[in-house]
C-alpha cells in the first residue's frame, strides 16, 4: 500500500517537473531512480516525493526537487566532467550530480552534515564523490580547475575564488542575494577573460556563510 502511494507521488512529481521546464531525459531519469527519502530523517520520509524543501540537521534544508533538477539541467553535464559543489547538506543534489558526471568534489561547512553525507555515499557505493569539511567560498584549490561549479547556498556576490577555479567554457550556477529578500539563480559561463551572465529564476536558499562549524 505505502509502496503504491510512494510510486504515485513520484509520478506526480515527475509530471510537475516536466510541466515546469525539466526536459533533459538524463536529469528526469536520475530524479526518478534516486530515492530522496534516504536523505531526510524518518519523520519526513513520507514527504520526500513532494516538490518542497525539507529541514535537515544543523538548521539547513534539502532543496526542492524542482530547483535541484533545474540547477542540474543548467549545468549541462556529461560523464567526463569534474564538478565542484558548495553546500553538501543532505547529499541529495551531490548524489544526483554523481550519476551524471565523472567526479564530484563537494564542500560543507557543518562537520555533522559532512560526516553523515559521507557515510551515506559509502552505503550507496557512490565512489566518485569526494567530501571536504571546510569553507566552500575558498573553493578546492588542489583539485581545480573544474568543468562545472554549483553553489547550493546564497551568496551576496559571486566568490572570485570560484570564478578562478572554473575551466574555459565552464559553467557556474549560483543563487545571488541576501537571506531575507528574493535571490536570483545565476548562470555564469567562462569565455576567455569574460564571464557571460544569465538570470534563471527567483529562488530561496539558506545563506552561504564563512568559516566552518564543529
Ligand atoms: N544541496 C543541499 C542543500 C543544503 S542547504 C541539499 O539539497 O541537501 C545549503 C548547505 O550549504 C548547508 O548545508 C550549509 O551548511 C552549506 N553552506 C553554507 N555556506 C557554506 C560554505 N561557505 N561552505 C560550505 N558549505 C556551506
3D architecture notes:
The protein has 214 residues and is α/β, with parallel strands linked by helices. The protein has one domain: 3-Layer(aba) Sandwich (Rossmann fold). 30% of the residues lie in helices and 26% in strands. The strands form 2 sheets. The protein has a 7-stranded mixed beta sheet with strand order 5-4-3-6-7-8-9. Strands 1-2 form a two-stranded antiparallel ribbon. A hairpin with a 6-residue loop joins strand 7 and strand 8 (183-191). The mean pLDDT is 96. Bound molecules: S-adenosyl-L-homocysteine.
The percent range for helix content is 25-40%
Q: Compute the number of strand runs.
A: 9
Q: Give a short account of the largest sheet.
A: 7 strands, mixed
General form: globular
The named CATH superfamily: Vaccinia Virus protein VP39
CATH topology: Rossmann fold
Q: What's the CATH class label?
A: Alpha Beta
Low-confidence stretches: none
Radius of gyration: 16 Å
Strand content: 25-35%
Could you list some keywords that capture this structure?
globular; alpha/beta; binds S-adenosyl-L-homocysteine; two-stranded antiparallel ribbon; Rossmann fold; 214 residues
Question: Topology of this structure?
Answer:
Blueprint: H1 2-19, H2 25-33, E1 54-55, E2 61-62, H3 65-75, E3 82-86, H4 92-100, E4 103-108, H5 111-123, E5 129-133, E6 146-151, H6 160-164, E7 166-176, E8 183-191, E9 194-203
Parallel strand pairs: 3-4, 3-6, 4-5, 6-7
Antiparallel strand pairs: 1-2, 7-8, 8-9
Bound molecules: S-adenosyl-L-homocysteine (SAH).
Brief digest:
It is built from 6 helices and 9 strands. With 214 residues, it is an alpha/beta fold.
Amino acid at each position: 500500500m505505502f509502496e503504491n502511494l510512494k510510486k504515485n507521488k513520484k509520478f506526480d512529481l515527475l509530471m510537475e517537473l516536466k510541466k515546469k521546464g525539466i526536459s533533459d531525459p538524463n536529469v528526469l531519469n536520475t530524479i526518478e531512480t534516486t530515492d530522496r527519502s534516504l536523505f531526510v530523517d524518518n519523520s519526513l520520509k513520507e514527504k520526500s516525493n513532494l516538490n518542497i524543501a525539507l529541514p535537515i540537521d544543523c538548521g539547513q534544508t534539502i532543496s526542492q526537487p524542482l530547483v535541484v533538477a533545474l540547477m542540474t539541467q543548467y549545468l549541462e553535464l556529461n560523464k567526463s566532467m569534474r564538478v565542484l559543489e558548495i553546500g553538501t547538506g543532505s547529499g541529495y543534489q551531490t548524489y544526483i550530480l554523481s550519476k551524471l558526471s565523472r567526479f564530484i568534489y563537494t564542500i560543507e561547512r557543518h562537520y555533522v552534515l559532512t560526516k553523515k553525507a559521507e557515510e551515506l555515499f559509502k552505503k550507496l557505493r557512490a565512489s566518485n564523490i569526494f567530501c571536504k569539511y571546510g569553507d566552500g567560498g575558498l573553493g578546492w584549490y588542489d583539485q581545480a580547475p573544474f568543468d562545472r561549479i554549483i553553489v547550493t547556498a546564497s551568496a551576496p556576490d559571486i566568490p572570485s575564488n570560484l570564478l578562478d577555479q572554473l575551466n574555459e567554457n565552464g559553467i557556474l550556477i549560483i543563487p545571488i542575494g541576501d537571506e531575507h529578500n528574493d535571490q536570483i539563480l545565476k548562470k555564469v559561463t567562462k569565455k576567455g577573460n569574460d564571464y557571460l551572465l544569465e538570470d534563471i529564476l527567483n529562488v530561496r536558499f539558506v545563506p552561504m556563510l564563512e568559516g566552518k562549524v564543529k
